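Entry 12.
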Amino acid sequence: MKKFFTIAWAWIRSWFQRKPVRFKTEHVEELPDQLKPATIYIAGEGEYLWFVAMICPCGCGETLHMNLQADTRPRWSVAFNANDTVSLSPSVWRKIGCHSHFFFRESEVVWCHEHGYHSSMRE
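Predicted 3D structure (tokens):
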């Protein structure tokens, strides 16, 4: 029950945050024991990328893993943009827990809503 209220409070709190957050990108071979907030971790060796990880941007504190390997489903792709930012495709949609649904474009979260999507944080 306590976990439910923690997740619910993080979700409600995220609706009032308006300042866009630009995520830092870290290339790693292994994830650190503790992930930093507002950081996207790209795991792999050289040109071989395995997955992307981050702390859920809603504030619930869960670690999200997005697979980048072509032979496994579901699968995301990562784009390295000319302005030193990163984008993921398709969107990230948690089916359990906080149920966050967002795009990650140019190192920023673009939240999805029932009636379209809004840039950066929930409005």
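Annotation: Residues 2-118 form one domain. The CA atoms of residues 50 and 61 lie 22 Å apart.
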